[in-house]
Structure prediction request, 323 residues.
Amino acid sequence: MVKCKQLFYRIFNGIFIHCALMIACVMDPLPVEANTLVEARLQERANAALGVMSFALTPDVTTGSLSLSNAPENNPDLAMTTLGGGATMSQEFPIYLEGTIGYSRYDPTFIVSDGETEKLLPTKWNSIALTGGIGWDFPIVEDLKFRPVFNFSFGRVSSDLKIASSAIEFKSGDELEFLDNGSLDAYGLGGSAVLDYEHYRQDYEIDVEFRYTHIQLNSFGDTPEALQGSVNAQLLSLWSRWRAPTGVTLLDKPLRYVLECARTEYLGDMRGALGFNALNSLGAGLELDSSQYGIIITRTRLVLRYQFGEHVQGTSVGIAVSF
Prediction:
């Protein structure tokens, strides 16, 4: 098989969001016990919002599309999805470029009080995070290379109240101004260290990737000092894939079956932020090879995955393409 470019990263997570992972779980670290703005705990939620954003910084099959809720305990809802890719430009000039865009929605509830009257303020926090990476492939032995990557990120958390501002008779202060159409900007700098093993033969193909990522997110801009936050995002992931012909020929190429296995361990401020320390993924699917026809998409994969971790389990259907 001709390898003029590395397969366009591993998985395009969340291309079809509504086909993605839906998980029902117990969320201990993000209790919805109402924050009284009088107690000025909004900064903790700002850190939580940045923490949620940190899960969307890198391509990852375990959290590429994720939905968490716990209606019986009235916990906040959380949904996120990411789309990412990367490629080594050529074997002769092995610079590696990657990019990820991630979206998340987090719905915490607050209590505002004027000293006599208390009202619930259900809010909706939307965040978007963009991450880029520049690296270089260093061959170690046949089929194995080491790839250091410099990562940089930008993100924004926007807040809006689910009820009209006129319903808040005692609206005042930086906290409420932030909740009502406020925003928080964040930047991140860090890097990744990747071991990439690609063993391709006519009868089978093996991919294994071991990756450590560390990005420090910090808020900046005009957000009031009391609401600024920071998050130390770290993750350790192991991903593997086996591909082999099924014996069926389509588009003049073998139709392959695909088996996947992945585990992501969350470290730093990400550890326990969503109620678990790690997520696992097992997947199986089919891959259609269209390289015979000279189109830009050389392979298309459809993979069914089962994800599980502490208090968490669910399924997803993912579509990925290679160039």
Summary: Residues 27 and 275 are 5 Å apart (CA to CA). The radius of gyration is 22 Å. Confidence is low (pLDDT under 50) at residues 1-36, 163-167.
